[in-house]
Amino acid sequence: MAFVSATAPATAPASATIFISVASAVRASTCPQSRRLLLAPLHAAKGAKSVPVEVVLDSKVKGKKKKGSGAGNLPGALEVEIREAQEYLDSDEQEPVPENFPFEILDEEGMSVVILKRDFKDEKIEVTVSMPNLEGGPEFDDEDGEGDGESAGKDNDDDEEEDESAGESSISLKVVVSKASGPKLEFTCTAFREEITIDDMLIVESTNTNDDGEEKFPYEGPEFTELPVNVQKGLFKYLEQRGVTLPATNYMHDYMVTKQAQEYIRWMTKLKDFVKQ
Q1: Cβ contacts of residue 242 below 8 Å, gap of 6+?
Q2: Tell me: the pLDDT tens digits for 10-55?
Q3: Where is this region: Disordered (predicted)?
Q4: 3-class state of residue 237 by DSSP
Q5: Computed from CA positions of residues 164, 170, 239, 47, in that sequence, does the dihedral angle turn out positive or negative?
Q6: Residue 168: CB partners within 8 Å, gap ≥ 6?
Q7: 197: part of which helix (H) or strand (E)?
Q8: 2 secondary structure, DSSP code
Q9: Which of 28, 92, 128, 224 could be stapled to 174 by a disulfide with Cβ–Cβ 3.0 to 4.6 Å?
Q10: Closest Cα to residue 116, out of 268, 244, 272?
Q11: Can you tell me the distance from the alpha carbon of 176 to that of 201, in angstroms, rounded to the nearest whole number?
């Protein structure tokens, strides 16, 4: 089990709070963004490097023939995929940990999630970060530029469409806030490049069974979007104060894109080793 740690002071400066400093963030940006009213109080202006080069880890073998990977040559096809994924990974520049990043990163090799942990006052914060949902990102480059003429003729149009849709990629977060005793707060969030949305919020009791072992069905409250607007905004602010901010989630988005490429290579290598035995 391999862990990567990145820690910073437990409290972030006021300038890191997006909800109350949108104006200053916009002035510092090269591309100011408009602010939405309800579900997107956590906004950040898009900077020059806000949308990295991303990759959809779908096989390019289907519909194409590559050198050394003719029909039925599965090991050859896997070799090509592994090589191209490694080339992408070698060219990928991992962003440095942002200033005042408050979490410890627990990254176990071979797993599809990364765990973030921190203490905040008398609370323990744990964030489970899932692999990114990559919308419209480019595939690995075709090593020899092969492909039919029709596909080649559409390259420019495809590039424009990919640039427009790449910014829609996101990561899913499960944020659990707990204290020494009592219930926990559990948030399900989606982090985009310019906003974080709360999809659901639950109060999780310590046990869902009574003394007789019978399952209980506690009232779970209304849907998050049905809460009063001021309560919704207060919960966004609550998460910000505990470190769930756009700078943190944007960094984790880039981190998870890189992790996905690493895990893809490991998975492909295992498959190649198995079929060659």
Answers
A1: 118, 120, 123, 125, 175, 177
A2: 444 443 333 333 333 333 333 333 333 333 344 433 443 444 434 4
A3: 128-171
A4: helix
A5: negative
A6: 135, 136, 192
A7: strand 196-204
A8: -
A9: 128
A10: 244
A11: 10
Cβ atoms within 10 A of the Cβ of 72, count? 7
Report DSSP state, residue 141: P
The two structure tokens encoding residue 204: 């999780």
Q: In what side-by-side order are the strands of the sheet with 196-204?
A: 104-106, 113-120, 123-130, 171-178, 184-191, 196-204
Give the tokens for residue 59.
């096989």
First to last CA, the chain: 26
Dihedral of the alpha carbons of 8, 11, 16, 22, in degrees to the nearest 10: 160
Supply φ then ψ for residue 59, to 5 degrees. -65, 140
State the pLDDT confidence band at 93, using cuts at 50, 70 and 90. Answer: confident
Could you tell me the pTM of the whole model?
0.65
